[in-house]
């Protein structure tokens, strides 16, 4: 194991995921998460080679959760001394951040300027950064942004056809998300294909609870399906993705809904959950669909159809296609959705290798298309490794 490790932190409003990573090989020494922060049920789960421990931390806030993590780390001989940098996942970097940044007081001020773009995520990210800087004042802290990778999108891809002043005066434009995952997967796709990343045109589908697709040319994002927020684009677990923009107005005017109720529908009650009426979890929906639950079958049909359409449309900015890559929990595991999407994209020359499709699940990387036509790859993502590598670059 390397003598320098990185603590990677991913803070949500009531949860905090962490991992201590050897940035030279990606090995995780310890990882876990604190959940239900600031409630009586707050708890910290830590996993290591020795197993899993659960520690109640009633009413803990982010700061105390990080102190508790440090206590756990201190129990492992010599481990805390090996942590040489902290990497923070930050959801929205607006137009201010094109790459990962070393955090100082000025960076925090800039991060606050992006808060209005991701009011659910960025404040929690900043809370985590401030708590971690208190606990580790002498280590370099690095912010790694979900949006930064997409800052290479040309204006035609990122400006909405709205009054231009809304962009100029208020930053209303497409930003895109999952950038850290796309950066890793694009590099790995080149390794898998034995080619140089700079010469590859790929469409990458990151399919988790939130799902997006990106067109990547020579390692640079040209366009992506998520927009100003992580709701635009394909069908998500509970978010609707792209819909007629006048539907919210209709719901307010004709069904007397408040904007909060509309927002609740668009973000929390739509997507796979909304259509199936059953679950936002793809695995549960596949099981129900296999048992003839009709709305689950419809949810999977809509999901695959919209995904295939989005993938095809993202070949436009590339002008060619070397590889389609699946990643994220659904992309890495759902043989059904991958198979269905590839079938619908046969006109692009994609041809499924059914046996390889069955093989590439649960972390198995590989090619799932036949040798003819563009490659279809499954590449398990590793956002934590990217964050650790970016943070390690600032170790003095
Ligand atoms: P997050 O966006 O929260 O990081 P993940 O990338 O972990 O989410 O993806 C979660 C999704 O992956 C869930 O919908 C889950 O059902 C799905 N998934 C995991 N394993 C399978 C599987 N074997 N078959 C189908 N879907 C799966």
UniProtKB/TrEMBL annotation:
Please name the Gene3D superfamilies in this protein's record. Answer: 3.30.420.40
| Alphabetized UniProt keyword annotations | ATP-binding, Cytoplasm, Kinase, Magnesium, Metal-binding, Nucleotide-binding, Transferase
Which reactions are catalysed by this chain?
acetate + ATP = acetyl phosphate + ADP
Enzyme class label: transferase
Membrane spanning segments where? none
Q: Name one GO molecular function term.
A: kinase activity
Task: Please report the name of this protein according to its UniProt entry.
Answer: Acetate kinase
User: Which species does this protein come from?
Assistant: Sessilibacter corallicola
């Amino acid at each position: 194991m390397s003598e320098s490790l990185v603590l990677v932190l991913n803070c949500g409003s009531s949860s905090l995921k962490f991992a201590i990573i050897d940035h030279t090989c990606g090995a995780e020494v310890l990882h876990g998460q604190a959940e239900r922060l600031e409630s009586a049920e707050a708890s910290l789960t830590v996993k290591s080679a020795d197993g899993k421990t659960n520690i109640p931390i009633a009413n803990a806030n982010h700061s105390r959760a990080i102190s508790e993590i440090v206590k756990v780390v201190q129990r492992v001989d010599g481990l805390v001394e090996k942590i040489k940098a902290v990497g923070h996942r930050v959801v929205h970097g607006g137009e201010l951040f094109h790459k990962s940044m070393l955090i100082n007081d000025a960076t925090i001020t800039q991060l606050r300027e992006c808060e209005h773009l991701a009011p659910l995520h960025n404040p929690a990210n900043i809370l985590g950064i401030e708590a971690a800087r208190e606990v580790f004042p002498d280590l370099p802290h690095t912010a790694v942004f979900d949006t930064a990778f997409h800052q290479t999108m040309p204006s035609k891809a990122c400006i909405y056809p709205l009054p231009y002043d809304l962009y100029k005066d208020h930053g209303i434009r497409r930003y895109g998300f999952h950038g850290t995952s796309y950066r890793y997967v694009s590099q790995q796709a080149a390794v898998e294909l034995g080619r140089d990343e700079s010469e590859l045109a790929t469409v990458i589908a990151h399919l988790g609870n939130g799902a997006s697709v990106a067109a990547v040319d020579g390692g640079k994002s040209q366009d992506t399906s998520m927009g100003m927020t992580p709701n635009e684009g394909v069908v998500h677990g509970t978010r609707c993705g792209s819909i007629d923009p006048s539907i919210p107005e209709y719901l307010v005017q004709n069904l007397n809904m408040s904007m909060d109720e509309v927002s609740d529908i668009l973000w929390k009650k739509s997507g796979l959950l909304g259509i199936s009426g059953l679950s936002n979890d793809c695995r549960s929906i596949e099981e129900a669909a296999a048992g003839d639950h009709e709305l689950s079958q419809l949810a999977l049909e809509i999901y695959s159809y919209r995904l295939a359409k989005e993938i095809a449309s993202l070949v436009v900015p590339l002008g060619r296609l070397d590889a389609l890559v699946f990643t994220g929990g659904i992309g890495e595991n759902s043989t059904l959705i991958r198979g269905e999407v590839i079938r619908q994209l046969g006109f692009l020359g994609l041809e499924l290798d059914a046996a390889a499709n069955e093989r590439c699940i649960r972390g198995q990387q590989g090619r799932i298309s036949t040798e003819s036509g563009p490659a279809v790859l499954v590449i398990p993502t590793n956002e934590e490794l990217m964050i650790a590598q970016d943070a390690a670059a600032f170790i003095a």
